[in-house]
Design goal:
2 copies of one chain form a homodimer.
Chain A (H helix, E strand, L loop, with lengths): L5 E4 L3 H12 L4 E4 L8 H4 L12 H10 L7 E4 L3 E6 L5 E7 L2 E7 L1 E4 L3 E3 L17 E3 H9 L14 E8 L15 H15 L4 E6 L8 H11 L4 E13 L2 E8 L4 E7 L1 E6 L1 E3 L1 H9 L27 E3 L9 H24 L3
Parallel strand pairs in A: 1-2, 1-7, 2-3, 7-17, 9-15, 10-11, 10-15, 11-12
Antiparallel strand pairs in A: 4-5, 5-6, 8-16, 12-13, 13-14
Chain lengths: ~350, ~350
Amino acid sequence: MSSKPILVIGGGPAGLEAVRGIADLGYQAILIEKADFLGGMPISADYAALTPDMRSPEEAMGEMIVAITDNPSIDIRLSTTVVGSKGDAPNMEVTVKNAGGEEILEVGSVIVATGFKHFDPGKETQMYGYYEFEDVITLVDAEKMLKADEFARPSTGEAPKTVCFIQCVGSRDRQIGNQWCSKVCCGIACKQAIEVKEAAPDARVFVFYIDMRTYGFWEDEIYWKAQEDYNVNFIRGIVTEVTKRGDTLVVKGEDTTMGRPMEVAMDVVILSVGMEPSDGTVEMADTFELPLEPHGYIETTGGALNTVETTVPGVFVVGAAAGPADLEDSVSMGGSAVMKACSFIRKSELQPA
Amino acid sequence: MSSKPILVIGGGPAGLEAVRGIADLGYQAILIEKADFLGGMPISADYAALTPDMRSPEEAMGEMIVAITDNPSIDIRLSTTVVGSKGDAPNMEVTVKNAGGEEILEVGSVIVATGFKHFDPGKETQMYGYYEFEDVITLVDAEKMLKADEFARPSTGEAPKTVCFIQCVGSRDRQIGNQWCSKVCCGIACKQAIEVKEAAPDARVFVFYIDMRTYGFWEDEIYWKAQEDYNVNFIRGIVTEVTKRGDTLVVKGEDTTMGRPMEVAMDVVILSVGMEPSDGTVEMADTFELPLEPHGYIETTGGALNTVETTVPGVFVVGAAAGPADLEDSVSMGGSAVMKACSFIRKSELQPA
């Protein structure tokens, strides 16, 4: 008898890792992805390079995708969404929908890998002028430009002479309701600052930050590297406003190290937008009746010692659907959820209902 | 035919998670622990409470230990060390040694979970007076005192009126050769600052830091909590020296936010010592011929997308043996390594040599 399959929802790094792992252990996997391609945010958002190794997302995600392709244990459904669920694991009936209509899948366990969305800086009462000034962009916009090898000042198409990053846009901010630190934006800003200096070597590049959270090996691998090898300037400061004077952006705030007001002209301002639970994450929480933790992500049980188990037996969560996560977190959680979901299936077969 | 067992070396959080997962998937595990008890650093170093949930380590580790006890698939060897290895996975002969002598174990795969050691502040040319002044202690010493419900000024046994933490002792420091950020010390200092305020409510508590790296949910769960609910004072500053004037410690440095020299009297100074690879980690790297990455931890392969695989097939590394790691990292990596080690065993049986 073949085991009931494990349903993985979301084809980003955490989901891809989970699907491969399930098959490697001899279990059956069904992967549901709403887009018509796999790879998740690194592909859909056109990331230029992954942090911190600066690998090509196409190459890195490509390897993960090849590893799950043409495998009889893996059923991949693109352009498909989950629209309903009935019953409890290991006997769940999950309804999926695509252009061909609806279908009910019998599955034994579910791994939710629906990830995050980027914070929309319009929410922050436009204090940084994202929807007002062409030369104010986000980390996500910058990734696309860097990937296309076209990093330039949007309003002129020319190489910028001055570029700054503003950290913690949509993170660590009680006023907008996002009290968490998004974990990866400091590392990504370091990585992009290096890429900007490679694209525009004459540009002066600044990072305005509250705390540089380049934990673990990111400290010297990207933060020190940006400072020492690329002359990126890191300035501890609070930016209160981005305005415009003539053709140039003006960044106003306080340099909290020097203890003085700061007003600097910039050709390009990059907003380091943080993570929020994706729409898919909120929808799947609703579909599978998964409680959200106080920040709005899917709640896990067991504190620090259980990173992937939800309060619903047989339903697991991986990656940024459970909270801000870097790639390492997502991949480790993907593997851990495979262990738990396959164990769950195995135990249910040893002790049939 | 029963599979060859997977050898897990180290009975801390990552190792315990791995052993339970192996058995849950129907494979055989042997756990080697050099101490005569399980639980790893949270138990051996007498942690007062885990970060960030403030759970009792005995309770939390106790649950993990119960989950692997009296399981016919798990062979636990305490007071035992690994002293040699021959052959390649899945056909390895690993020599272990205990009071009864040496024994050769035939194993199919190995998971190294040998963890970290706390930085010894004597290394830092004693600039913080750890070996000179009784009232200068480390995070580790403070855990023991908090656990015993005896947090006091060591030289007098009385409740301290002023307590400070000095962050990044043995981390982010090129001079001593530890260029990494140890990832957890900011969170642990927040947790301990809260515990100190609970133990000595009248004490004024300060944390001197470079960057507060309370990433993800630690931001509001422990960092804001320490500030808002416990009135802990966080001061961005560089401490250059701890000296003594009369009976009182004097902390000298610069308050980098106020931009002025700082000289403050303290009853107790707590050094937030970072992580280094444990002796066991270095020994196992040698025994299994695992290359070290540039910081001296066991190297993993595949960058951000492969957190547990070493360059030696069938040998995996989890938790702080691979670099600074929090509990979540360790547990997720433990689960991920189970998936990979069991898959490795399964594949080797499908394609016998």
